[in-house]
């Protein structure tokens, strides 16, 4: 352990005993799901009368559940419940209030964490980095859309008098990440998705830092990889791994990144509301290992993904309907680890139907079209039930051929689509690019 690591682990352990064990390996916490679920359930029922009543009418007795398989009997927490803070426990001080939901869903929601929650989240982050082979102090470059820049948001935060948030984020960005983690943030604008030159420039900027790790959303990684297809590959120096989080990572994208960048790619399923739920390994075949010590993941008949976080006592996240669609499987992974595996497909309400009537989610669209030499595009609901294939940037003359290529790969019937061009793509406030926005 180096000095930076020793300082962090000592402080973490003081604030939350068990920190070291959890920070050392992803999913390394104590595995006692039923015990943890029942403890959180009892806590939530004690403090939230409406939730207690809902549990009682679902036939869940005061002693909780008899088996983890019965979790499906508990009421599901929806995003709307979160937005009206139905699960916020009044007593208890929040240290951090993290905002999410700039993605155009039903309004913004705020996730409150107490000190223990923040420290546990941080242990989760360290465990992710550690599993990807990182050692404290090794150079990391993180790509962020400009919307996430600290000084971009400072004016707004000052006006809303969010002083705790200002201090917390400053501590996180400039003290913890910059000083201890040796992490450098590089911001990009929406032109990344329309201009291969902008994507190439972003990569160049990153490589100038000679990083061992790059953290990026999969959408930005796709843009960078596409920009590399028609130009000589730069040298990637000491780059060991790429960590992706935030949008859906297609398996084809992961494979190409691995080949082109000569680095391992670790994909995460994480959110502001839940923290670090699942992490891929070096041989994931599109699937991620669920952190079963801290989370319970379930899917329903429509493949809707519900996740329980055993840890947030200030805002119990019991059976949170994530709005994502995914597949869970049990058993082994090619890497040798056993346990639950998760494949994330996309958002529940974001799919198209191909000519055979099959649903294609974000991951399906990516995996079918990414390997082809096509520009980025978006699929929108067009007029008269036709799918609109939207292009931006590139040459107008190439659009017709590209549209036909896309239609072929997605098995769209001729006449079922139209194509168009716009100045920019349809982007949410969070700056995420999706094929199915
Ligand atoms: Zn694995």
> How many DSSP helices?
13
CATH evolutionary superfamily of the largest domain: ANL, N-terminal domain
Main sheet record: 11 strands, mixed
Strand arrangement across the biggest beta sheet? 4-3-5-6-7-8-9-13-12-11-10
Based on Cα principal axes, name the global outline. globular
User: What fraction strand?
Assistant: 15-25%
DSSP, total strands: 18
Kindly state the mean pLDDT as a whole number? 89
N/C terminus separation: 44 Å
CATH class term of the largest domain: Alpha Beta
Could you say which small molecules are bound to this protein? zinc ion
The residue ranges in which pLDDT falls below 50 over 5 or more consecutive positions are: 102-106
Q: How many domains comprise the coordinates?
A: 2
Please bin the fraction of helical residues: 25-40%
Radius of gyration: 22 Å
CATH level 3 topology of the largest domain: Rossmann fold
| SS-derived structural category | alpha/beta
Short description:
By secondary structure, this protein is an alpha/beta fold. The chain has two domains: 3-347, ANL, N-terminal domain (Rossmann fold, 3-Layer(aba) Sandwich); 351-421.
